[in-house]
Amino acid sequence: MNNQLKRVNPKNIDVISAEWDCLCARRQETIEQGKDISLSFVTSPCILGEIKREHPDSVLDVGCGTGYLTSLLAKRTKRCVGIDMSAESIHIAKQRYGESGASFITTTIEQYRTIEKFDICVANMVFSSDPDWIESICVIRKLLKDSGKLFVMLPHPVLWPKYWGFQEAEWFHYNKEIFIEHNFSVSLVKSMGIATYIHRPLASYINGLLVNGFRLEQVIEPYPIKCTPIEYKYDYPRFLFIKSRRK
Ligand SMILES: C[S@@+](CC[C@H](N)C(=O)[O-])C[C@H]1O[C@@H](n2cnc3c(N)ncnc32)[C@H](O)[C@@H]1O
Questions:
Q1: What CATH number does residue 64 fall under?
Q2: In angstroms, rounded to a whole number, what is the distance separating the alpha carbons of residues 201 and 174?
Q3: Which of 9, 80, 135, 176 has its CA 20 to 30 A from that of 228?
Q4: Distance between CA atoms of 116 and 23, rounded to whole angstroms?
Q5: Which residues of the chain fall short of a pLDDT of 70?
């Protein structure tokens, strides 16, 4: 097992936001160096492919981080807004992708207030960092047009524990919500700083959506779109995409 992983007590949104404030500059560097292979070859292409299929006018990218995916969404839509609770992340997003056509706002999902309604909300790798994810999807539902859709990408709840090697840890129980502190790494860069991964069983995510006003439309276990660097191993799906529609 990766010995930098440990179970911790639940953290609140301010603590997790501060972790992203510390991490985001380093993470943006790795994105720009082309070292976040999962983001550029697996998760973003899957989301962008589905955006192309739906051709929405407006997209809200919740938990947009430093704005890499938001800027790509902006190219394909008339109106694109990225929000994130990490002020540092939004600062970088504005600097780096301010010209992309996307607007960026520092706010938690829960506190985001607007009269605007969106065709699609995207949450790429967000709910596994969000202690209040149910509150977040209730707010997102209100931000969507009547038949608007929510695109959720998650670390695969069933296979992420195997990938990170904590499946066998004595503190790990698949069917519980568990906060796991780790040294944040992406595909080709390790140990960027402290981050918190919140494990929830797959059923929590599915039922959370169903009970809070969404109808499931599609599930994808994405694979990389094209040849990835030799060091990048992807033997089984470690991400999960869930498309749901507002009921
Ligand atoms: C793993 S990063 C993903 C960033 C981006 N979506 C991407 O694909 O690169 C998770 C992001 O979600 C943000 N986040 C988590 N919960 C949030 C919430 N409730 N409101 C706003 N941002 C949130 C964090 O601040 C962090 O920037």
A1: 3.40.50.150
A2: 6
A3: 80
A4: 31
A5: 1-3
- Confirm whether 72 is domain-assigned: yes
Spacing, Cα 126 to ligand 1 middle (Å): 4
Length of the chain (residues): 247
Long-range contacts of 175-180 (CB under 8 A, 24+ apart): 175/201, 176/201, 177/10, 177/204, 178/7, 179/7, 179/8, 179/9, 179/10, 179/11, 179/131, 180/5, 180/6, 180/7, 180/8
Residue 180 lies in a domain: no
Write the CA distances from 83 to 78, 89, 144, integer angstroms. Answer: 17, 10, 15
Atom of ligand 1 nearest to the CA of 122: 6
User: Which residue's CA is the closest to the ligand 1 atom numbered 16?
Assistant: 130
Query: How many structural domains are present in the chain?
Result: 1
The H-or-E segment that residue 121 falls in is strand 118-124
User: Is residue 189 included in any domain, yes or no?
Assistant: no
Tens digits of per-residue pLDDT, 43-75?
A: 999 999 999 999 999 999 999 999 999 999 999
pTM higher than the cut 0.85: yes
Name the maximum alpha-carbon separation found in the chain.
49
